[in-house]
Specification:
binds magnesium ion; 212 residues
């Protein structure tokens, strides 16, 4: 086998939460009178909550204190967490589920490497709470993607060296983080367009072909 472990980004790879992020950020943007659309929302993939807010504030003319920023970001997260309660195992596609099971049966160690502090909730909602051998997320890192920390923590928890890990990502920040961690990366969606994605996945199950 080319790799011993596969580290998956969560949002945009295993399941899709962008529309929930969008709705929650839209509420905050409307409150501030800032223009916000799906194109801006797409720029928030893979980066932390506060960094996302800073991008939204590029369209804001006024002055906003750090304390206010913290309050808006906390409010966004409360809205987002309520929306996540609508998620269920139906939000995990058969293709993703079957591919993950096949990879596990083939002997790969499987982990999550996500910038989200809500990764545990999302995994629980979609029925994957106990599926992965390790979960590295926004709660155990001090720097988010494109910093490699989240993936290095996953490789450490799995006890598999970076060169034996493959990362699966949908965000450019995540592809850069994988490269910085010294890991090969398979890109899906937008990330497949990056030169740093060694493998370009048209669909999730293409993974079964590239890891052989
Ligand atoms: C993922 C998403 C980002 C989000 C980040 C933090 O990486 O792609 O859009 O900003 O997680 O999520 P959180 O749930 O901690 O706000
Ligand atoms: Mg993602």
């Amino acid at each position: 086998m080319k790799y011993k472990a596969i580290i998956f980004d969560l949002d945009g790879v295993i399941c899709h939460t962008d529309h929930y992020h969008y709705q929650a950020w839209k509420h905050i943007a409307d409150k501030l009178g800032v223009y916000f659309d799906e194109v801006i929302n797409n720029r928030l993939r893979g980066i932390s909550r506060m960094e996302s807010f800073e991008i939204i504030l590029e369209g804001y003319d006024g002055i906003i204190s750090d304390g206010e920023k913290m309050r808006y970001v906390a409010e966004k997260n409360e809205i987002y967490k309520k929306l996540l309660l609508d998620m269920s195992p139906k939000d995990l596609s058969d293709e993703v589920k079957e591919t993950l099971e096949k990879l596990k049966n083939q002997g790969f160690r499987l982990a999550i490497g996500s910038s989200s502090r809500n990764a545990g909730t999302i995994l629980r909602q979609i029925g994957l709470a106990r599926f992965f051998d390790a979960v590295s997320d926004g709660n155990n890192i001090s720097k988010s993607k494109p910093d490699p920390e989240v993936f290095l923590q996953a490789s450490h928890s799995l006890n598999v060296p970076p060169e034996d890990c493959l990362v699966v990502e949908d965000a450019r920040a995540g592809v850069e983080a994988a490269a910085a961690a010294g890991m090969d990366c398979a890109g899906i969606g937008d990330a497949a367009k990056s030169d740093l994605s060694i493998y370009k996945l048209n669909t999730f199950s293409d993974l079964l072909r590239v890891v052989q």
